[in-house]
Each structure stands twice: as C-alpha cells, then as structure tokens.
Write a structure and sequence with these properties.
alpha/beta; de novo design (two linked rop proteins); five-stranded mixed β-sheet; 43% helix
C-alpha cells in the first residue's frame, strides 16, 4: 500500500509553474470559485472540521486562528504568508513556491475573500531569489486571467499580492519579526500580547500563515473539511510534506498522510529507502534545528501531531534529518549550536549569551576536557534559555541538546572519559588524531 498521498503536491514538476491555463486544466481555481458561493463563516467551519494544524512548526489550529481574526471588527485586514523557510533540513515550501505557486496564490485569495482583505503579502527568503521571479510571473498571469487583482471572476472582489524579500535572517521566520521586517524595521520579535490578529502588519489586524498551510485551503474548500480530515488521523487532518535529508538513501520532499510511522518514512522504498551504504540508524532530527532528536527505539511512533508529542517528539516544519552510526552526537550538537549563535538576533541575554556558553562547554566535552561541574552548568543553561528567552528561537535552541542528553547520555559520559564511540569524530580530526 502506497505511503504517498499527493493532495497538494500533485502539480509539482508536472505543470508549467506560472501557467494559469495549465493550473485551471488540472482543476485549479475550483476551490476559489466554490468559496465565492459560500459565506466566510462557512469556509472557516470547513477549515475547523479539517483539523488543519499550522504547517510552519507551531501547529496552531488554522481554523481557530481564522475565526479569531474574523471576529475582529477593525479594517483593513492583511493576509501575510510566511515563506521565510530558514529551518535547516527544511525545503518543502520551496517546492510549492517554485513548482505550484498558483496553488499558494489561490489559497491567499480565498483568505482575502474570507476577511474582505484587499492586500496580501508573501515574505520569501532572500536565498529563493530565482523562485521569487517565478512567483511574480504567476501573480502577473493570474491578474491577466482575472483570478487576481480587480473584480476577480466578475464578483467585484479585489485582491492584490505583494512579494517581500527576506535578507537571510532565520529569526524573521518568527511571525512578529517577519512583520517588523516587512515594515522596514529590524527583524526582531515583538512582545505579545497584543496578538498579531489584533495588532499585526502596520498595527492592523493580520492573518499570518505558512506556505503549506495556505496551500491546503483550496483543497479543503473544494472537498470539504470532513473529507480532508479522513486522509489523516482523528487529531491531525490531511497530509504533511516531509523533507528527508542526511544519511538516507532517497533524499527529497514527500507528501504523506498522517498515520504512517517514522520507520515507514525513513525505511519504506517509496520514501527514505533506508540508511546509506547499509549502515545502522543512530538518530533522527525532527522539525529542523529547533526540534527534538529521536532514537531508534522511537521508530514505530506514528507520524502525527499527538503521537509524536506524546513520545517527546514533534512534527515541526516537517524536516527529518537522518544520521547513521558513524556520527558523533556531540559534534552534531556543536553544529546545531553554531547555527543558533549565528542566527540569534541578540535582543535577549539568555539566547545571545547562552548559546555561546553552551557551545564552549560542548567543545570541552568533545575534546574530553569537560568536568561534572560543566555538565551541571550545561543543565542550568538549558533551563534558563528555555524559560527566559524572549522568543521561540532561544526557547527551542537547546531542544536538540536536551533530547540527546536523554537518549545518548552514555555518549556524553564516554567523552568525559576522553572516548568517542563514533567512527568519525570531527573533534579528533581537528586535533589531528
């Protein structure tokens, strides 16, 4: 039985990305046409029935977010799509943006109709410069075909989409930092409350959704929330784009229904196809650098929000980075921490200084120079950063370290005794051993 279900990725690699003609022939814009026959409340009800959870990492119920914004009476309202895909190991939005941009545009237009919004913004990371050109071409062609701009499909409704370019700052993936960046301010997170639904872009009510989240809206409207829910599990509706990378045979983006197991995702021939060169799995990193690390003992966990959460794991952005038996856990964590040092916005002390101190201790562990006192300090740093950092970046920076400590405590102890069980330890290479 196939483990792949192409609900939102079926057009990818098949159609001309910016061709409205191709998109319409493949069934595109049928969701928008149906949406124009429905009341905004009816559309939101279908999204709630679908149990669509935010696909950017936070997993907040999309229907609830839409409902909250609808209840706010202030206008204008803005639609903002977060395409600042900066999480290492994550490249699923890139596929939709570059190969099926009209699906994203259709979803944004439906959202615009629901909230009587006339302007939408999509914030695309600067590294996707070539994709931005494709997306702009798709916008232009949608306007020419009457599916965007003024008087869409003769309904009298007007909606425009503007592309904003990121500058490579990972922290701008945080929604409030992203809005600050769009406004021309420093990309640093805001204090919440007030929430973005109330005080968002230009201090006005704003909907912020992930690319994959909004790409699901046309399907939900067209097929209905109950049908969409049936593709997944009782608590996690529909499908998820996963990104397989690392020491796995078949690297790439795959769309799977919620309910398959992690073992299927990594080992099924249709998906990961197992570990490269017939080696053994050591660990997998879920949801990006800010996500938890899992061990072989957790492979039979069902891939859905509830089951992963109960196992101390998470869906996050959909990344699954696979590492084999030769990888040194400590050196892997050094790489993760270096990333957060580089990407911290510097606004708060726990994140700005905490990551540097964690890296210094990891280097001591890696070199076999750490003491038990260092391990105590490391635990205090993890606790402080998790509880006191200003935004999710600092709060989640030590998640990988914390979960590794749980699953691979013996490897930390081996390093304290100047031993590394990995066949290739970067720290040994650095020391010339």
């Amino acid at each position: 039985m196939t483990k792949i279900k192409k609900l939102i990725s079926g057009n990818c690699g098949v159609l001309r990305p910016d061709s409205v003609e191709d998109y319409v022939q493949a069934g595109g814009y049928e969701g928008l046409k149906k949406a124009f026959t429905m009341k905004p409340e009816e559309i939101i009800d279908e999204v709630k029935k679908a149990k669509l959870l935010g696909r950017g990492g936070a997993a907040y119920p999309v229907g609830s977010k839409w409902e909250q914004l609808l209840e706010i009476s202030e206008f204008p309202k803005y639609i903002v799509i977060n395409a600042d895909e900066g999480e290492p190991g994550t490249f699923k939005d890139k596929i939709l943006l570059g190969q099926d941009p009209l699906r994203v545009i259709e979803g944004m237009t439906i959202a615009g109709y629901v909230f009587n919004s006339h302007d939408g913004y999509i914030y695309i990371r600067g590294e996707y410069r070539a994709i931005q050109k494709v997306f702009q071409s798709a916008i232009d062609n949608a306007v020419k075909a009457g599916y965007l701009g003024q008087n869409i499909n003769g309904t009298g409704f007007a909606f425009n989409i503007h592309i904003m370019t990121g500058a490579g700052a990972y922290v701008c993936g945080e929604n409030s930092a992203l809005l600050n960046s769009i406004e021309g301010k420093a990309g640093r997170p805001r204090i919440k409350p007030p929430h973005l639904a109330e005080v968002g872009l230009f201090l006005l009510p704003t909907l912020v959704n992930n690319v994959e989240s909004i790409a699901n809206i046309p399907t939900i409207v067209l097929e209905g929330g109950d049908k969409y829910l049936s593709y997944g599990t009782q608590d996690s509706g529909g499908t998820k784009l996963i990104c397989l990378s690392g020491n796995v045979v078949n690297r790439g983006v795959y769309e799977i229904p919620f309910g398959v197991s992690l073992r299927d995702a990594i080992y099924d021939p249709e998906l990961g196809g197992g570990i490269l060169n017939g080696k053994k799995l050591k660990f997998f990193h879920l949801g990006g650098q800010s996500g938890p690390i899992g061990s072989e003992a957790q492979l039979d966990t069902v891939y859905c929000y509830k089951a992963l959460r109960n196992a101390g794991l998470s869906v996050g952005s959909g990344a699954i980075v696979v590492m084999d038996e030769d990888v040194c856990v400590i050196d892997y964590l050094k790489g993760v921490t270096e990333f957060f040092i580089h990407e911290s916005c510097g606004k708060c002390t726990p994140c700005r200084e905490g990551n540097k101190q964690i890296y210094a201790i990891l280097c001591k562990i890696s070199a076999g120079e750490a003491t038990n006192d260092d391990m105590i300090v490391l635990k205090h740093l993890i606790d402080t950063m998790t509880k006191a950092s200003f935004c999710g970046l600092g709060q989640a920076a030590a998640v990988a370290l914390n979960t590794c400590w749980k699953h691979f405590k013996s490897e930390f102890e081996d390093h304290l005794n100047k031993q590394c069980p990995a066949k290739v330890c970067f720290s040994e290479q650095e020391r010339g051993e």
